[in-house]
Design goal:
It contains 4 helices and 8 strands, in the order αββααββββββα. The chain is α/β, with parallel strands linked by helices. The chain has one domain. It has a 6-stranded mixed sheet. Strands 5-6 form a two-stranded antiparallel sheet. Helix 2 packs across helix 3 and helix 3 packs parallel to helix 4. It is elongated. It starts with a helix and ends with a helix. About 5% of the residues have low confidence. Keywords: Signal.
Amino acid sequence: MKKQFVSALLLFITLNVSAQRLKINEGDFKNLKGINTYSVVFDYTDVQIPKFENEEAFLKDKMDKREEKKAGDGERFKNEWFSDRPDRYHPKFIESFNKRFENGELSVTEDAADYTMEIHTTKIYPGYNVGIVRHNAEIDASFTIYKTGDKDNILFSGSYKDVQGNGAMGYDYNSGYRISECYAKLAKNIAQEFDKKVL
């Protein structure tokens, strides 16, 4: 029994690590040598939500359930779903990336820069925490780098699947917080690749 448990645990860890491995879609890290600042932009076009046909269907389901319990909660959920992007996810990504380079070797900013790093989120699974049971949020995302104003000339593009954020010791009852931790992890993954292959 103990051997089966250890085997299952090792399989879970292996799958989790491989799921968060970088897939290079286009370009080469050598194209990024000498670039130290990126203007980061975020794209959520056609984002998919597991178990739902599309984002609109997800929002309708969640809004209807909340509205049944308390008038106004449905609209509040929708507003937070979209406002969490600039208020939580973007700052969390920027903070997590930049803190890996304490001496400013590399940085991302929402200000203008010569080169752009575009983060395209293709899947968001918000996870859940109902006290006794919880599940991390997950995202799939690609990041594409190009000279600002020349989007068709891609220097590098890569993607990650099933990036999970760590919870706050189980006290992550807010979906926006859970999802923001995925962006912190995504930024960490990208920064580690840059540290190894660009600097």
